Amino acid sequence: MKKTLLLVLLFFEVLPHQRPGLHAEEKQGRELAILWWNVENLFDTIDNPATEDNEFTPAGKRQWTEKKLALKRIRIRRVLETLKVDPDVDRYPDIIAFAETENRKVFVGSLKNITGISYRTVYYESPDTRGIDIGLAYNPKSVGLRASKAYHVPIVNDKPTRHIIAAGFSAGRHPFHLILNHWPSRAFDREWSEQKRIAAAKVVRHIADSLRTVDLSADIIVMGDFNDEPHDRSVRDVLGSSGDRKKVLKECRELFYNCWSDYEGIGSYWYRNKWERIDQILISCGMLQPKGLSAAPNAFRCYHFPDMLTRSSGKPYQTYYRGQYKGGYSDHLPLLLRVSVEQ
Description:
- The chain is an alpha+beta fold.
- The chain has seven helices and 18 strands.
- The chain has helices spanning about 1-10, 25, 65-85, 105-110, 190-215, 235-240, 245-250; strands at about 30-40, 95-100, 120-125, 135-140, 145-150, 165-170, 175-180, 220-225, 240, 255-260, 270, 275, 280-285, 295, 300, 320, 325, 335-340.
- Strands 1, 2, 3, 4, 14, 15 and 18 form a seven-stranded mixed β-sheet that branches. Strands 5-6-7-8-13-10-9 form a seven-stranded mixed β-sheet. A two-stranded antiparallel sheet has the order 11-12.
- It is globular and about 55 Å long.
């Protein structure tokens, strides 16, 4: 226990070179917008011999060109710009996390040329054989990065998967923590692949338990593409989640609150003629309380506007569909969490 506590304290020690100054008005109580999105294969056009990215090159199976990449980036920026003018949000996201980004360069390039904001990034290359990672960006004028770390997910006798990314931030004088996920897919057989997602859930639970050892009411946000739904064993039992706010507050050390529970809209992913909720945001009991950072029952939404869905079927307007290029946004819809910050 002492060793775990020491590691967590070291991990979340404030790093001097990562303490950007916040303007006076930004230190006051206000709201943060946090976005998660699996952007569907955000690849550059260059063949990386160390990964299986050949199909996303001009000569590859997908015939992925600079023109197609440019349109992909336009789609991404349009989502961010729409959030800025959405009356319920009225800002660019303060924190952005994308799944399925190939490398830091293509991720950073996709967040450039957005009027009025300049993001900083946290990026770890993962051991995923396709070369896809999780990219994290934040607005240094509204939040400060304290530390970050990538955690390996042990997968036995199979291909390696994406890292779990943990990052410590501060909003004014209030610390909070993000744990970002892109768990192994359900490819080939759901039951066979379940053990890999359970392995990922155990890593997340270990990180969360360590944080709650230091502070039982720590403000923690767990989000990502879990490739399982809220009722599945990996999320409900291993990670530990519930849709009952009172139960989460009572079992603070054991449970996260799953934000889908308050939401009545569509899911984030369409599969076999039904909406699924495999992208999720979960919050600790500390965020159900008014101190520090807090999330109200209406703080979460699966964000989309009409152009992000196909007109014929109302499904996500994908970049590729059944191997054919469509030029859409993504096969997933983004998730948005609006968080209040105590003054």
